[in-house]
Design brief:
Low-confidence stretches: none
Distance between the termini: 28 Å
Number of helices: 1
Helix content: under 10%
Largest sheet: 4 strands, antiparallel
Mean pLDDT: 80
Order of helices and strands: HEEEE
Length: 81
């Protein structure tokens, strides 16, 4: 549910999906359908970076880790007649 065009390639996102539907007969040969769904997706990923500090006599290099998270939530409620 999280588009790769937004966050890039990710591994193992968490998905939560809930849905419900009901069909009702109103009058002769008339039906009403209600349907609802809630979609949630969450992904966390770590990105490795390096910091370079140019000092005399030897430059210092530190490895760091940056955590980025993304959440997407969508709701849908169509009515069918």
């Amino acid at each position: 549910m999280i588009p790769e065009s937004v966050v890039g390639s990710v591994a193992a996102p968490d998905h939560e999906i809930a849905a419900a539907a009901i069909d009702l007969k109103l009058a002769s040969r008339t039906w009403l359908g209600l349907q609802g769904e809630l979609l949630r997706s969450k992904v966390d990923r770590s990105v490795g970076v390096f910091d370079f500090f140019f000092a005399d006599p030897v430059p210092n290099v530190f490895g760091l880790q940056h955590t980025a998270g993304t959440q997407v939530q969508r709701a849908n409620l169509p009515v069918l007649c």
